[in-house]
Amino acid sequence: MEGKNKKTKVFKWAAVLMLAAMMIVGCKQAQGNNSKEEKYEVTVSAGSNGKVTVAPELPTDKKVAKGQELTITATANTGYVVDKWTVTPADALQSGGTAGSDTAMVKVSAATTVNVTFKPVGGTPSTPPSGDVGSFEDTGDGFIKISPPAAGITGKDPTHTLPGMEEYWKGVFREERKVTLSPYKLGKTEVPYKLWKEVYDWAVKAENGYRFANAGVKGKDGSGTEEEPVTMVSWRDCIVWCNAYTHKTNNAESECVYRKSATDTTVLKNANDTTAWDAAYADMSKKGYRLPTEAEWEYAARWQGSDSTNADKYGEVWLTKLNSVSGAKGNWEDAEKTGEVAWYSGNADSKTHPVGIKKANALGLHDMSGNVWEWCFDRYEDNPRANDAAYTSGGFVVDPQGGAAGVFRVFRGGSWYHRAKDCVVGSRSGSAPGYGSVNVGFRLACRP
Description:
This protein is an alpha+beta fold. It has helices spanning 2-34, 193-203, 235-250, 274-278, 294-302, 335-341, and strands at 39-46, 50-55, 63-65, 69-76, 80-88, 93-96, 103-107, 112-120, 135-138, 143-147, 153-154, 178-180, 184-187, 217-218, 230-231, 258-259, 281-282, 303-305, 311-314, 317-320, 373-379, 392-393, 396-398, 409-412, 428-431, 440-441, 445-446. The longest helix has 33 residues, at 2-34.
């Protein structure tokens, strides 16, 4: 009996020890399950003429654990080399990432963005694509994807008569200026009031935190329809709205384009914070909604590909003459040709009209001339080449964004209130970023 009792006691102690071990393991597992691993979003992008890969590959949600090291490899297209790496925050870069380097090692400790651009070998493409006039595609979501020619747009002085002698009639593709643009998407129409109001109402809710200087109105004075372009919105309002639309669409702020600065990535939300907004930084690596740059706007307004009708040749591509409205086959003095594609003072009956009614231009874009002026992101400079040094790479001005300083922001295209000559594709104008008018609206752009 004593031996049996001893065995029973041994079994009991063994059971107790096993239960204790199981409890310890269970506690550790529970602790592991309750601890949340820190992760941060990583965005990696490349300019035109090359691509990037990441090892290890980024997950679908782009969230990477804190402390993870990533190797980013840039591969340039034939005739191009790596030009510049941009890593934010800067201390994430561990090695590489210099001009000409094909790789960069980054360590994730915060939300991180990496962008690499490419430039032609020796300053010009080794074999410029012959006959490359660019291309476009209707993406079925209200946008046109625009792919400018890889060899760029070679500027030239006009040989035809302009509406005036001033420099502001001559557009941005000037003599001795070679501009290359990355592929981009542009809205087929100006933003109608209906879409503006839907996003505006969402944005101003307390939990979303956006603030506008102006609420916007339907068309000319609020008496129009919801399909007419929104007006009475300032440049600052448009920037706020673009961020809000991006936030609403993605259910997150991660792809918002407009930030406080290149180093302070705070998303801008308040149009009344004039100091922050007037220094707004556009993170072009993001896929969110934004205003087009002036060069993007003009290229889209003028593109004709290989069609030389009423056009001049800029390198390989034919662009509508500076003295005509977008999509017209005659100059501003031809009322019939102008009226086919534009609402202006001669045919608009002193008011705005629903977007998309007039005939589209060669890219399938409506109202690029007339109806309402359209805000662009750029600071206005009388000489569009004044700040080219900031964007020049390999002899090309790459994706320029206008002046380095100055108060005014650009708007283009003319309006229902203006004469036909004011609506021509070469006419440049602008105003203070807080300005709103019954004849000024905007059109959306974004990365493909």
